[in-house]
C-alpha cells in the first residue's frame, strides 16, 4: 500500500527534541518494510515565530508563507537525517520530484511547496498525485473535535465526518500563514474529490501511525454522499 503521512510541526518539533525525530524514524522504517511511505512535515512553532517576525516587518502573506515553507523543509531534513539510508537524501520541492524520488524505494520526506498551501494541503495533493490508498494526518490531539480540546474540556471528538461537514466547520475560520486548522480548505477539497481514505490521529505517539492501517483510531474522513 502507498501511504502519505503528514506530521504536524506542533508534534515533531514541539520541544526541539531530537528523540522525537528518532522515534518517528523507527516507526516509519517499520511501515516502509511493507508499504511505500511518503511524508510531509509541518513547521510548528518555529515556523510561526519566523512568520511573526516577517509579518511584524510588514511582509505580505505570500512572503510569510514562503518563509514558513523554508522552515518545513529544514524539519524535513532533520527527519531525513534521523532516517539515514532509509530515506531519499534530498527534500523534494514539488510533487513530480517526490514521485520521482519514491521510485527508488526509499522513504520520501518533504515540507511545503508554495504559498497558500499548508503542509496538510501538500499532503492531500501528494496523496492524490501519487495515487495513495491512505492519508494519515498526525496532529497533537486524538482527532478532529467539535471545538478546541485544549481550551474546552467538554470538547467532543468526532469519530467520522464527511469533507462537506468539515468545510462547514471551517467556514468562519481566518486562513493566514501559520494559523491553519487541522486540515485547511484546500486539503479538504482534495480529499473530497479524490476520495482518499484519510485518518486524523494523535501523532504524539508515532506508533499510532501503524495502528491506523488496520485499527479504528482517531477521526476517519468518509466520502461525501453522492
Low-confidence stretches: 175-180
Query: SSE order in H/E notation?
Result: EHHEHHHEHEEEEHHEHE
Kindly provide the radius of gyration, computed on alpha-carbon positions and rounded to a whole number of angstroms: 16 Å
Distinct helical segment count: 9
Q: Could you describe the largest sheet, including whether it forms a barrel?
A: 7 strands, mixed
Widest beta sheet: strand line-up:
3-2-1-4-8-9-7
Task: List how many beta strands DSSP finds.
Answer: 9
Instruction: Report the average pLDDT across residues.
Output: 91
Structural class designation: alpha/beta
Strand content: 15-25%
For the termini, the CA-CA separation is 26 Å
How would you name the oligomeric state of the polypeptide chains in this document? single chain
- Helical content (DSSP H or I, runs of 4+): 40-55%
User: Outline, from the CA principal axes?
Assistant: globular
Amino acid at each position: 500500500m502507498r501511504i502519505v503521512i503528514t506530521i504536524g510541526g506542533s508534534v515533531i518539533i514541539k520541544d526541539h527534541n531530537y528523540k522525537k525525530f528518532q522515534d518517528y524514524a523507527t516507526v516509519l522504517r517499520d511501515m516502509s518494510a511493507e508499504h511505500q511511505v511518503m511524508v510531509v512535515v509541518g513547521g510548528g512553532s518555529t515556523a510561526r515565530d519566523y512568520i511573526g517576525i516577517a509579518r511584524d516587518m510588514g511582509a505580505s502573506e505570500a512572503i510569510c508563507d514562503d518563509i514558513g515553507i523554508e522552515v518545513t523543509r529544514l524539519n524535513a531534513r532533520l527527519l531525513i537525517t534521523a532516517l539515514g539510508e532509509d530515506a531519499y537524501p534530498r527534500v523534494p520541492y514539488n510533487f513530480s520530484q517526490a514521485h520521482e524520488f519514491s521510485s527508488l524505494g526509499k522513504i520520501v520526506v518533504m515540507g511545503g511547496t508554495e504559498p497558500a498551501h499548508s503542509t496538510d494541503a501538500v499532503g492531500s495533493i501528494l496523496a492524490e498525485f501519487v495515487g495513495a490508498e491512505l492519508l494519515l494526518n498526525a496532529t497533537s490531539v486524538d482527532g478532529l473535535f467539535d471545538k478546541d480540546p485544549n481550551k474546552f474540556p467538554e470538547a467532543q471528538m468526532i469519530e467520522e465526518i464527511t469533507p462537506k461537514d468539515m468545510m462547514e466547520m471551517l467556514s468562519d475560520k481566518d486562513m493566514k500563514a501559520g494559523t491553519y486548522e487541522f486540515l485547511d480548505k484546500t486539503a479538504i477539497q482534495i480529499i473530497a474529490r479524490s476520495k482518499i481514505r484519510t485518518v486524523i490521529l494523535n501523532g504524539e505517539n508515532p506508533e499510532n501511525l501503524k495502528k491506523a492501517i488496520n485499527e479504528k483510531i482517531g477521526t476517519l474522513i468518509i466520502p461525501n454522499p453522492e
